[in-house]
Design a protein that fits this description.
Elements: H1 32-42, E1 47-51, H2 63-76, E2 81-85, H3 93-100, E3 106-108, H4 118-121, H5 127-140, E4 145-152, H6 158-170, E5 175-180, H7 197-209, E6 214-217, H8 227-235
Parallel strand pairs: 1-2, 2-3, 3-4, 4-5, 5-6
Helix pairs in contact: 1-2, 2-3, 3-5, 6-7
Length: 239
């Protein structure tokens, strides 16, 4: 995770430290792209997922820093696959393009939940905006896999999950990941339901039936969980 350890947003499901730039200093390590690349090379990684906090305090949302990190990792590990899990950059497609032009193999932006719950779960994000970011990503760099993840157990209905999956396919997303929401601290939103394995299987089957290259669905699935396997299997399937 890059761009510091403080997030400018207050999503109800997330325990990453949050803050206001008006009240405290938000730092940015200008050498971080090189540090990340060096560490990835030392670890001899074959698949690297780069994600970040939201940095709405920066004019470019941190996209230049994000892009430089991708470039340095690809330079240090030319045989490795690189996946980016980006914020929405407030819908700024120039910022999204900047990251994509650095050459990631997989572009991931998480929807997190269904549209009805956005105002409570992701109050500083917009459902349609996130879908537009994903669609722009695919159209700007068609050779990259596009991917998005969501959590269940936040109060959604199966119909709403199906609707979200349809909206993702309409936005040309290739891969979906679906996992159980777990409350990280007592300050975060409570779990509404523990979804059954059978329901996770049903979500996977529905997603595949509407055209996803792969749907990774299960209680312990997370957006970057076994990301290398997800990418490899999805890339090996014809659209």
């Amino acid at each position: 995770m890059i761009l510091g350890n403080l997030c400018t947003r207050g999503c109800a499901f997330c325990s990453v430290p949050k803050g206001s730039p008006a009240k405290q200093e938000f730092l940015l390590d200008r050498e971080e792209p090189w540090h990340v690349a060096d560490m990835a090379a030392q670890m001899k990684l074959r698949y690297v997922v780069i994600t970040s906090v939201n940095r709405d305090d920066l004019p470019d949302g941190g996209s230049r820093h994000f892009a430089e990190t991708v470039r340095q990792v690809r330079k240090a590990l030319p045989a490795a696959q690189v996946e980016v899990l980006t914020p929405d950059f407030c819908g700024d497609t120039e910022a999204v393009a900047r990251v994509l032009d650095a050459g990631p193999h997989v572009f991931n932006h998480n929807m997190e939940t269904v549209g009805r719950l956005y105002s409570r779960v992701r109050p500083q994000a917009r459902y349609r905006q996130s879908l537009d970011v994903l669609q722009f990503g695919k159209r700007h760099r068609p050779e990259s896999l596009t991917k998005s993840g969501l959590m269940v157990g936040l109060g959604e209905t199966p119909y709403e999950v199906h609707e979200l999956l349809r909206h993702l396919r309409d936005s040309e997303v290739d891969v979906a990941t679906i996992g159980q929401y777990l409350q990280p601290t007592r300050r975060n939103r409570k779990v509404s339901e523990f979804v059954t394995p059978a329901q996770f299987d049903a979500y996977r089957d529905y997603g595949l039936s509407i055209g996803f290259k792969m749907v990774f669905s299960g209680p312990l699935v997370r957006s970057s969980y076994m990301a290398d396997r997800v990418s490899e299997e999805a890339s090996g399937v014809d659209a």
